[in-house]
Inverse folding.
């Protein structure tokens, strides 16, 4: 039995291992935000504003009558 | 639904305008959150539109000055789960389709334009995925994410932590990316992509 093979799924708890794990988590975080921001930065389909405008007109109509 | 009790007459106007302006700025975020929940752009936009209208209809119950983003995200999430409960069979089929997609990646003929992170996310339990998205991508504090998911702050923390560990393990294992790709390729490509993205950001 040697110590240099870690059981699968269990990262070594050495300083270097922890640092490596931190870097990986950081990378996942950056990619995750990028994935989300990609959609946030897409132009909003006109449909959204059309629907909202119609609802708004309806609301003012009701309020006015 | 009409005639039982008419809603209190609402003075239209300045408040509505301010509400609407803020709601419009949130549409891109609602679309992004909906996309992560449904995984399908068309279904996501339907969901985001429904949530936007629900928020608009409920504007009288919103306190101006409080966190509208978290409030609309909560509406969207509730809408998603209530639709899902109604169509549980459909979601089961979606799950099967997702699994087939993961398997299909093994096909050497298929263009390897897969996004490893997206696929790895799809393997997470739903409540872990949404917690991680809200905190890790949506920029919400744990407390805000807890309000959105209507659960305890500690629950959100533990879901996020489990999600991060599971995601890393999946990416390192290369889980779905077997054929012709060494284990760990997925993680390596994430690391490389993250490097590119951070240098773009800093530049």
């Amino acid at each position: 039995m040697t110590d240099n093979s870690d059981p699968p799924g269990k990262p070594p708890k050495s300083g270097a291992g922890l640092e490596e794990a931190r870097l990986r988590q950081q990378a996942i975080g950056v990619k995750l935000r990028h994935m989300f921001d990609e959609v946030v930065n897409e132009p909003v389909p006109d449909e959204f504003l059309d629907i909202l405008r119609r609802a708004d007109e309806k609301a003012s109509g009701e309020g006015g009558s | 639904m009409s005639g039982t009790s008419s809603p209190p007459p609402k003075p239209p106007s300045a408040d509505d305008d301010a509400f609407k302006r803020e709601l419009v700025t949130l549409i891109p975020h609602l679309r992004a959150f909906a996309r992560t929940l449904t995984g399908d752009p068309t279904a996501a936009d339907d969901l985001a539109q429904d949530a936007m209208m629900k928020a608009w209809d409920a504007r009288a119950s919103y306190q101006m000055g409080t966190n509208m983003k978290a409030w609309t995200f909560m509406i969207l999430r509730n809408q998603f789960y209530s639709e899902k409960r109604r169509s549980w069979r459909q979601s089961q089929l979606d799950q099967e389709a997702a699994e087939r997609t993961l398997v299909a990646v093994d096909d050497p003929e298929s263009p390897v334009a897969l996004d490893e992170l997206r696929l790895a996310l799809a393997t997470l339990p739903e409540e872990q995925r949404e917690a991680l998205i809200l905190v890790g991508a949506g920029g919400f504090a744990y407390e805000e994410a807890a309000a959105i998911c209507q659960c305890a702050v500690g629950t959100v923390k533990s879901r996020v932590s489990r999600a991060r560990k599971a995601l890393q393990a999946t990416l390192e294992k290369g889980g779905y990316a077997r054929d012709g790709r060494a284990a760990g390729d997925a993680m390596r490509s994430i690391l490389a992509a993250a490097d590119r993205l951070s240098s773009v950001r800093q530049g």
